[in-house]
Sequence to fold (366 residues):
Amino acid sequence: MVAITAPSSIEQIPLVQCPRANASAAIPCVDLSAPGAAAAVADACRGVGFFRATNHGVPARVVEALEARAMAFFALPAQEKLDMSGAARPMGYGSKRIGSNGDVGWLEYLLLSVSANTVKISSLPPSLRAALEEYTAAVREVCGRVLELIAEGLGVDRSLLRAMVVGREGSDELVRVNHYPPCPLLPPVDCGVTGFGEHTDPQIISVLRSNSTAGLQIKLRDGRWVPVPPAPESFFVNVGDALQVLTNGRFKSVKHRVVAPEGAQSRLSVIYFGGPAPSQRIAPLPEVMRDGEQSLYREFTWAEYKTAMYKTRLADHRLGPFELRATNTNSCVPPPPPPSVDPYCNGSGICMPQPPPQQQQVAEVH
Ligand SMILES: C=C1C[C@]23C[C@@]1(O)CC[C@H]2[C@@]12CC[C@H](O)[C@@](C)(C(=O)O1)[C@H]2[C@@H]3C(=O)O
Ligand SMILES: O=C(O)CCC(=O)C(=O)O
Ligand SMILES: [Fe+2]
Fold:
């Protein structure tokens, strides 16, 4: 990872160079209305922890209305965007800074709590708020359908997971609208600037939709990064940390990141994060555990996980402090191998920007 220093005339936030994706692989695709959907969803969640969902039932009109309103919002002067939504703390409008622990990316965003289908920021333009509420209502249903399919695929009660998020009083639903302007580096420099750094999503699942501009990449279990070709008519589903725990590690939360767009197009993505109520206990579902199977995690509440998560950096392994390591009394079994690390990352997964090879000109996100 390489930091590129901005000229002194603009805000001194270093841009972080994103290593290139080094593989191509087919992203699992599931027709949510097909008879075998539950098995296909479970397969994808067990394998990559990520899939593309088609036949989701969300009208194109709803998606396009939000895209148009969001693009109009991001085209406003920076001060107006701040006045209308407040600075992200963590909800609100943010530019370049992600969270409050030093992560940066080449993007601006709106992060909103949408529990009970009410966008909690009252000063947003009414047309944007209406589009967000209509979109959220539709995508919440996609989340609910996927959670039913996951439960069916796991062989547990169909409504078990859905009921933790959809229609559950106090469930913690967020919507994030990310706008990635084209790569800030001037040609002929090869871009590859980080839009949104490597991380897993903390919730149960996330449901993402983007415009036709590429940039999202996922990390396969073998450590290779693969680009996700944009599919504006589809949604992408991520397994989150909470689902990893609920399934006792059968499903693993997927690492993903975004590289700033090459060329002239901006990337616009909207992500619905399905989180449970603060008091929800997060522990392996008894129904998925085999006889004698040990829990890999100590039980915690969603409130506890969120408190811990807001103290972490994006790339941190957030579940680490909640893992129970089985004490190994059999001296014939070798200890697990050390985690594979990026050459510029320390063992805890925190990536340090490296000194720039040369100074580069950058433009500013407005
Ligand atoms: C650096 C951070 C941003 C984040 C909160 C955190 O401290 C660690 C998790 C981050 C993340 C990643 C997925 C979602 O975009 C997000 C909203 C979330 O729930 O966890 C962000 C958080 C954020 O931007 O506040
Ligand atoms: O913008 C994207 O495509 C993904 C962003 C993301 O992973 C997030 O907001 O958590
Ligand atoms: Fe994410």
